Each structure stands twice: as structure tokens, then as C-alpha cells.
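tool_call: predict_structure(chain=1)
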Amino acid sequence: MTKLPPWVDIVVIPLISLLLALIVSGLVIVYIGENPFEAISIMVNGAVGSAYGWGYTLYYATNFIFTGLAVAVAYQARLFNIGGEGQAAIGGLGVALVCLALPWPHWTIALVAATIGGAVFGAAWAAIPAYLQAKRGSHIVITTIMFNFIASALMVYLLVNVLKKPGSMSPETARFPEGAFLPNAYDMFWWLGFSRSAPLNITFFVAILCCVLVYLLIWRTRLGYEIRAFGQSESAAVYAGINPVRITMITMLISGGLAGLMGINAVMGEAERLVTDPVQGAGFVGIAVALMGRNHPVGVFLAGLLFGMLYQGGGELEFEIPAVSREMILVIQALVILFTGALDNMVRMPFEALFSRLRKAEG
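tool_result:
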């Protein structure tokens, strides 16, 4: 197999796969009797054509970047962590407990504490499947799936019986103290036209920082080298003195911590309280984001933006063209996943053959 240049693997191939997905999506829209060019125009304008659209697009993208990074880090060790949904939910619980614990004097202090709380709770929820994989041989896919459902049930129980605001009929906590409110897009960039209702908040920059830190960890540290070596060949890694139990545990703790950080955006930044389903499927979308981003932080960032656009633009399309239902939006998203995942080799193999011929010609 010919190794492709990073710019081809991370940028060119996903863009071609996306183009193919959009072409097929256009054919589906034609089939239901609508104009595909009008539909694409509505989606693009709804996602990035206004400050309102950007406010929601980047908010969704922030969630997807966190969960995408969580999947990407685990995959470097060939651990398929699909428990981001549960880890993000429990991370949101950690964020909420921290925010409710004290009358925070300023959001900067609360943000640091909430970051620690979300990461610790998310990592703790990932630690159990990691231990079962490392010590008992239980497959990480099965255990992380199960823990998604356990996390959901636990959240409902806690919000109904333990954390619910006294006198409230809604299963949610009390609103966080004002010192724990994060600056939103209006507070930071009001001059760009953002409204007070824009859910985008300063957590977007935390997500960007996490992309940088993940890159430095995986490709610039000894631990990152051990994680990648373990993922390439467990037997060779063990022969080189790398402890598989240690690497499995550390990798999953980092992965779960990244997923848990999503709670800062959804719980602290947007809702300003803990509700029963703060994740809303972002954990599963993170799998597609990591897949499309080739498990690289730059690719995850770009794929997160794309799926943020699909979510926001899809909502606008559903509103503007009633014939395009929510299920149709899911079909478009599924086609993107299909072409960037299952049909990846359809685009990749011609590039590999091309670069193989070029290298032979140079040699």
C-alpha cells in the first residue's frame, strides 16, 4: 500500500468523497421533486450566510470536535471508542456539579474548574471499559456501547431524584450562578452581528486548543509514540517494552476526558444548567467526524465544521422546504459518512496507484 502525502489523505480525499456525497444527495432531492441547487443554496446560506447561522454552526462544530478528538485519540491505539455519547453526558454531569458547587466570582475561574470536572468525569466513565478491555479481554466496542445506555439511565435518575431543582416539574438542575456564565458570541463579537441568543461561546477556542494539544501529544511526545506503536502492532510494542495495559488505560482516559469536555459547551456554555440529554447524538457524530478527519486533529477540526454546517443548514432546509423532512437530512448526513467511510477506498485507491507510478518514475 502506497503511503499518501498528508495533504492528500487529510484534505483532498475527504473533499472528493464529500463532493460525491453531495451529488448523490442532489439526486435524492431530485427524486422527491425538489430543486437540488436550491436545497444546497438554502443549506449553505443557513449555515454560513449570516451571523445567526455561524453562531449555531460553530456551536455544533465545537461539540463534534470534542467527540471527534475522543474517537481519534483512541483509534491511534486501535481502540474503537464508541462510548463518546455516555462519556460526554457524564462529563456534563461533572461540569454541572462543579458549577453548582460554589458562587463563582468570575467565569475564568469557573471555566478552569469545569474543564477539570468534565475531563475527570468523562475519563472516569471511560476507565471502566478500558479496564475490562485491558484486564478481562472484554471488547471495547461492546462495553462502550453498554455504558452509553447506563450513562443515559443514570442521568435520568439523578435529574429526577437527586439534582432536580426544588419545586420544578422539569428534570433539570437549577440555573448555574452568574459567575459561571461563559461569554457567548455576542459578548465577544457583537460587532460581527451576533445576537444574544447565539449558542456559540468561548468553548470553541477551548476545542481549538484541544486540537493543538492532541497533535502535540500524539506526534511530539514519547507517550504519543507509544500509543501509535501499540496501535500499529501490539506484539511489536510489547516486544519493545510497551505495557499494553498501561497504554490501553491511558489512551482511554484521555479519550474519555476529551469527550467529557463537550459538557463545557453544551451544559455550561449553552444551557447554563444540566438537562437530561445534553449530548443529543454528538457522541455518535464524533465517530463520523474522526473517520472523515482521518483521526488527525486538523482533519477532525475541518470535519467538525462540516458536520456543524450540515446540522445547522439541514435545520434551515427542513424549515424552508417542508418536503425535505428531518429524515431526509439524516440521509444526506449518512451519505457523507458512507462515502468518507465505507466507500473510502473507491477514492483512495486511484490516488495510491497514481502516487505509486509517480514514485516509480522518480526512482
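agent: The chain has a mean pLDDT of 91. Proceeding to next step.
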